Amino acid sequence: xxxxxxxxxxPSKVTVLGTGLMGAPMARxxxxxxxxxxxxxxxxxxxxxxxxxxxxIADTAADATSQADIVISVLENGPIxxxxxxxxxxxxxxxxxxxxxxxxxxxxxxxxxxxxxxxxRRIHHVDAPVSGGVVGAEQGTLAIMAGGDLDVVRxxxxxxxxxxxxxxxxxxxxxxxxxxxxxxxxxxxxxAVSEALLLAGAGGADPAAV
Length: 210
Fold this sequence. Notes:
α1 (23-32) packs parallel to α7 (133-139). Helices cover 43% and strands 18% of the residues. By secondary structure, it is an alpha/beta fold.
């Protein structure tokens, strides 16, 4: 678990890109913690309800990020993240010293590539996918796996806190690797449970009772 670096002030402005099943409750958690939040979604109607919680709804991704200290991406996949960040002007709109916090589940190589592309712009990058589902996002109990520079992850501690528990797992891309490992464990466990229940049923036991 990462502890906050108290010598660094918490950022004042946060942007959330992608307000779907995960992004919307994560944005609400941040709003509830007192962060000013700008929100953007490719389908604007999905972001609009956040206005009632105090969020500013932006018309474009670039508009949403132009004044942000931290830009949180919760977009659908790697190609969409690539397009929004580098094709729709987000990287160009971000200021030097700001942080792109990618909390979507994308390929590790893509996360590393994004970090490299942002470095010459003096924009920090952290890949921090999550586990815990919609309930975890709503309750602020997500397991957050962060890859990137440890000092940058520490600067984000106040932002992570309303959403869940963060663990720094290594350099850029390591957060995505941790998420892949997590999914492998889940998948293998489901397979093992299925095989065990089939075995029980074949032997005459009631699988539901087992």
